[in-house]
């Protein structure tokens, strides 16, 4: 048997959004109900970066690749959850070195971000040297439990190098209840095309 961890955010109007911007909050409307029709139907107004989502290079690179270019085969496979909950500011190269990461790894950063349902302007992010270290190792992808992998650093020195080196970025994971270790990962972004990101359902599958 196995245990399934849902590591995605619940999409709801009161959820945390990046920098608490009102325009980024999802809006869910009831457009028909049993008082005015024969069925219940809803409509959703959703930012592409809402909650758990996959970024595509177009997000930070002019003429970058769009979300449909990231195949499901790149988002399914084994992933390592790294316990970095002791960090207060940023994930650095020095923080990552003890884990013995290997070429081809998928890396999920578990930080204190996972333990709060409120957006923290000082969320833990992946610093430029940490991103460069992952690039040099040749990891396939990196996931973070922050709603951003960086805090809008000048020149986006975490996002852009990762994108330029074909490292996939997933943001907004929820890893609070997931022990450090290796899991089978499934990340399924909405099947969108021509844009820079897509909300996703993210799962980890491990032993009970």
The counted number of beta strands is 12
Kindly, what is the distance between the CA atoms of the first and last residues, rounded to a whole number of angstroms?
Answer: 7 Å
Q: Describe the largest sheet.
A: 7 strands, mixed, barrel
Please identify the structural class as seen in this structure.
mainly beta
Low-confidence stretches: none
Note the total helix count. 3
Trace the largest sheet across and list its strands: 4-10-9-7-5-11-12
**Secondary-structure element pattern, one letter each:** EEEEEEHEEHEHEEE
Large-scale geometry: globular
Which band does the percent of strand residues land in? Answer: 25-35%
Radius of gyration computed on alpha carbons = 17 Å
Structure, briefly:
This protein has helices at residues 93-96, 128-137, 159-164, and strands spanning 3-6, 27-32, 41-45, 53-55, 76-83, 90-91, 106-110, 125-126, 141-144, 168-171, 181-189, 197-206. The protein has a 7-stranded mixed beta barrel with strand order 4-10-9-7-5-11-12. The chain has a two-stranded antiparallel sheet with strand order 2-3.
């Amino acid at each position: 048997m196995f245990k399934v961890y849902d590591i995605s955010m619940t999409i709801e109007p009161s959820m945390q959004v990046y920098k608490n911007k009102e325009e980024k909050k999802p809006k869910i409307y009831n457009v028909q109900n049993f008082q005015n029709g024969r069925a219940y139907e809803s409509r959703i107004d959703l930012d592409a970066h809402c909650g758990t989502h996959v970024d595509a290079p177009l997000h930070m690179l002019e003429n970058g690749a769009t979300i449909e270019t990231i195949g499901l085969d790149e988002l399914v496979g084994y992933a390592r959850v790294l316990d970095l909950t002791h960090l207060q500011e940023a994930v650095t190269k020095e923080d990552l070195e003890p884990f013995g990461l290997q070429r081809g790894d998928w890396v999920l950063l578990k930080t204190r971000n996972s333990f709060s349902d409120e957006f923290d302007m000082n969320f833990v992010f992946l610093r430029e040297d940490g991103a460069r270290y992952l690039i040099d190792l040749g990891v396939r992808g990196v996931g973070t439990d922050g709603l951003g992998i960086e805090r809008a650093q000048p020149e986006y020195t975490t996002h852009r190098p990762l994108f330029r080196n074909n490292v996939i970025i997933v943001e907004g994971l929820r890893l609070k209840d997931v022990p450090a270790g290796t899991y089978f990962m499934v990340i399924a972004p909405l099947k969108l095309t021509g844009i820079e990101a897509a909300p996703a359902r993210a799962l980890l599958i491990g032993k009970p």
